[in-house]
Amino acid sequence: MQLNSLPMMCGLAASLSLLTPLSTLATTKGYVAPADTVQLKSSALPGFAKASVCYACHSAEYIVYQPPTAARPYWNAMVNRMKNVFNAPVQEADIPEIVDYLVKTYGNEQPK
Ligand code: HEC
């Protein structure tokens, strides 16, 4: 192959790869997310029921996969961030109980 035929080859490859995604788009119907199977661990602590607001926006996975070494101030900051930054519908008065549930269920106050 001659060196000066390279630019033309590249142009052809580029236009072919442009066509492919377009035709794929035309037949795309939508996306179905997999079922959310992660749930918060049931507990007699009063914060358990109140923490149900915590998966209104995202999966409970976000909570379940936090480090088990996370201490009370970490959870307190997290709940406050959800409320203040993302407008999570958390009542100010419920925060201590929700934090208590989270740290005892997923943080560093879990029963040994
Ligand atoms: C109004 C929507 C909303 C609600 C309600 C909500 N969150 Fe979130 N949360 C978010 C968004 C958005 C993110 C991802 C953005 C980010 O991580 O900065 C997130 C991320 C997280 C994460 C991942 C770690 C991290 O730092 O991002 C944790 C843990 C979490 N939320 C816990 C909670 C808890 C606990 C509650 C209940 C008190 C809660 N969320 C309620 C919107 C919400």
Overview of this protein structure:
The model is unreliable at about 10-15 (pLDDT under 50). The chain is about 50% helix and about 0% strand. The chain is mainly alpha-helical and about 110 residues long. Helix 4 crosses helix 5. It contains 5 helices and no strands. It has a domain at about 45-105: Cytochrome c-like domain (Cytochrome Bc1 Complex, Chain D, domain 2, Orthogonal Bundle). The longest helix is centred in the first third of the chain and has 22 residues, at about 5-25. It binds heme C.
Core attributes:
globular; 112 residues; 0% strand; single chain; Cytochrome Bc1 Complex, Chain D, domain 2; mainly alpha; binds heme C
Write the layout of secondary structure elements.
Layout: H1 6-27, H2 47-50, H3 61-64, H4 72-86, H5 95-105
Helix pairs in contact: 4-5
Bound molecules: heme C (HEC).
Helix content bin: 40-55%
The CATH topology of the domain at 47-105 corresponds to Cytochrome Bc1 Complex, Chain D, domain 2
User: Rg to the nearest angstrom?
Assistant: 25 Å
Helix/sheet category: mainly alpha
The largest β sheet comes out as: none
Characterize this entry briefly.
With 112 residues, the protein is an all-alpha fold. The protein has helices at residues 6-27, 47-50, 61-64, 72-86, 95-105.
